[in-house]
Amino acid sequence: LSPISVSLHFYTFRFIPLNMKDLTKCVLITATLFVLYSCMDKNGLNGAPEPTPEPEKPSVEDYFDFNTMQTIKVNIDYGFNDYLVLFELFDENPTEEPEDGSIIKKENIKGLFKASTDKSGRFSGNVTIPARTEKIWLYSDYLGTVSPIELTIKDKSISFNQNDYIASHRDRTRAVTPVNEFKYPDEYKILGDWSESGKPTYLLPKANTPDYILYNIKETYSTVKSKYISVVHPEFLDDNVKSDIILAKATKIKLVFVNSGASLKNVMGYYTYPKDEVPEGNKITKIIAFPNITATQNASVFPCDQVALKYWDGTQFQDEFPAGVAIGFFLQPGGFSNGSISNPDKSGWKSNKYSSTNLNEPKQKRTISLLDKTSAQIVTIGFEDKDDNNFSDATFYLDIEQKDAVEKNTIPDLPDENAPTPDDNVQTTFGTLTYEDKWPEEGDYDMNDVMIDYESTIYKTLETNKITKIIDKFTPRHNGGIYNNGFGYQLTNITYTDVKSITIEGPERSTFIGNDNMESGQTYPTVLLFDNIKNVIGKTYTVTIEIANADYNKLIPPYNPFIICSTDQGRGKEVHLVNYPPTDKADNNLWSTGEDASQPEHNLFYVSNDNMPFAIHLPDVKDFPVPAEKVRITTAYPGFAEWVRSSGAQNKDWYLHKNE
Description:
Elements: H1 3-13, H2 20-43, E1 69-77, E2 86-90, E3 95-96, E4 104-105, E5 113-116, E6 122-130, E7 135-139, E8 149-152, E9 157-161, H3 162-169, E10 188-190, H4 212-220, H5 229-232, E11 245-246, E12 253-260, E13 266-274, E14 286-293, E15 306-308, E16 311-312, E17 317-318, E18 325-332, E19 336-337, E20 340-341, E21 353-354, E22 367-371, E23 378-383, E24 394-400, E25 426-435, E26 450-460, E27 467-479, E28 486-490, E29 499-505, E30 526-530, E31 541-550, E32 560-564, E33 574-576, E34 615-619, H6 633-636, H7 639-645
Parallel strand pairs: 1-9, 10-14
Antiparallel strand pairs: 1-6, 2-5, 2-7, 3-4, 7-8, 11-18, 12-15, 12-24, 13-14, 13-18, 16-17, 18-21, 19-20, 22-23, 23-24, 25-26, 25-34, 26-27, 27-31, 28-30, 28-32, 29-31, 32-33
Helix pairs in contact: 1-2
């Protein structure tokens, strides 16, 4: 205790009998000592005032980053040898089933991400997508892939291994003998047993490895209306063009399932007849090759599954087909159900579709067979089960053991040189940017002072997915502020050496950029579009940037976008998304002024003292409703507050639910 403290305790607590005069004196002394002690406690023993400590700043972790995107790890392995494919990621099932039973990709649906695998069918990397996404649909229209596949994001990652997927989805039920358990028409013969779902027990143990032939099949038997085989190659539909094959040599043959473009449980088979005869329905022996081909995820067979075909000599099956025999093919639409095969209708869409036109009712071409001239050992087969003439409702190919076993000039050649090109590895993303322009003052947080829509198209190489070109479109949509606000963006993750050229097309040019369409004096390439949003509302700027092969995850739209507030008063007042760094031209004297809580030394930028942003990115959103003037975003979008309170764990899609 200090001396004063000791005296204070003595006079306060010692009991001494006093008269009134002495009592008054004691009270005065005690009061004086309290005052003296109080002064010493404030000023110290030497009487000098102690410095008032500055309040500690909240840590960076105390502020929400307002990030509407998430980065996930993506691992895909299709298990190929020398066959790359393009794939896409969607946040909804990209396919639909019209009433005709076909399975088609939805029109005008935009993917979250598109890329190329390597030649082994593998892709591994980080992918940035909207934070609201919880499930992913992996889709590829490349033959040989199982698609679409629904995947759940777990621990910030998704994985798909096609071989493991097929193995886990194989029908494990005991195969039963159709003669004893299942029904099938008396006119059919079978190569062996199958399971209740239609998986043949005689599938060869190893799938036929995809290669270039699948590129040609995909392109020739296209599911795109403008590229239907009937549009691009109408000559293949001529009545004089045959679809049955004729063997010039004895050979063994394998039949490889490629794809089913329908959800119907179709039966596929074949028949033979002497090449100089016309096949007749009551004379040919129809043999079931695949009892059930379907495109659903409960499929009994998968792409590139194969079976060995057998030749029926009238008494028994032979492994080898003799020379001089013709082979035809048939499809029975919707013929499989609960393990059994129904009798085919004699007419109508459920009647058998034959490669021999004379067997069809009516006599229409239902199959197109084409010979791969490169190998002279592969014949592709495409079926049309109704009337759209794309011949992609079911596709197969024959893997023929003997070269040149197919008699020349009996069927047309398969078009070739249809491998993917870099022009196919293109993806488009879009969204909306909203800004408060009173920074570093708080403003009204109605987030409508500057609103800009963007659409970015990115071109990438095959295999490595390096970016070669970007075409960005920025359209100022709304101006709720009173200032002359400009807009630009910085490619913060690349350098000037990564940029080959930049061209800008737009209504008026920013006064802050040079002839190379970039702002000088910046560490990173910086593009400025306009200086005053009032003059360019509703007008689109198109920026084309040629890139020297940059990593795809270094140029994620909309990059580092920002507005320049009050350009008529200078260049330095920038507003970026939370925690996106300012450019070299930003005025650093504005940090921690007004309501700004930035801590540049800790990479905390553009957030207010009450944990509110000055800019927000709304990914994959078009026509975002303009927030009402002077209505805080927490009122306009009720889910916003909980999104912030939960640090982004809840209400990740808050911007899709406006308060009506």
